[in-house]
């Protein structure tokens, strides 16, 4: 089964989590795009929808939805998003698409976070995928030095500005054996907006599509 087919299957499996009256947060990326394509068929179940990026907001509008601001909506019932890496503790690396900060905000505002991935995203130890870190532009060298001390190789993402007007460092070569500790430690470096480790607020349910079906971890 090809990767896109698996992404689509994971996205369709997440539709089961959308109950009537859901205040829904929608993530960013190619896996979530399959979800957005399927949402019009169950639009009557969705009370309000909030987007994690400008790209997702436009796609939702094109699919016929009115997109609300998180501050108008308050808490969300459900947040659905993809990931770049997942482990069996439901810790994630996110931010390949650069939307990690808004994604972390929506995950934090949601009662339930369902993560949808194809099986290529499953790892034992997080860190083979370069860790995205959103930074305030003037802090680039200060933050980079902190990651070098932790034996990472930070590389500034070329020609990329986040929806918040910031930059992304992609940190290569990390072995993230303690995701909770690393998330806390690096989030405290001045100039870091957020790191792309989702461990303090992990997924509640992980839907992993593989050849022959979709596995669910968590609930
Ligand atoms: C965007 C993200 C995405 O969820 C992550 O990059 C996965 O993307 P895709 O579904 O295209 O593989 O964190 O910031």
> Structural class, judged by helices and strands?
alpha/beta
State the order of secondary-structure elements, H for helix, E for strand: HEHEHEHEEEHEEHEEHEEEE
- Number of distinct helices: 7
- Largest beta sheet, briefly? 7 strands, mixed
The tally of structural domains comes to 2
**End-to-end distance, in Å?**
25 Å
Ligand kinds: ribulose-5-phosphate
Low-confidence stretches: none
Shape: globular
Radius of gyration: 17 Å
The tally of strands reads 14
Strand content: 25-35%
At the first level of CATH, the class of the largest domain is Alpha Beta
Average of the residue pLDDT scores: 98
CATH fold-level assignment of the largest domain = Rossmann fold
The percentage helix is: 25-40%
What is the CATH architecture assignment of the largest domain? 3-Layer(aba) Sandwich
What labels describe this entry?
alpha/beta; 219 residues; Rossmann fold; Alpha-Beta Plaits
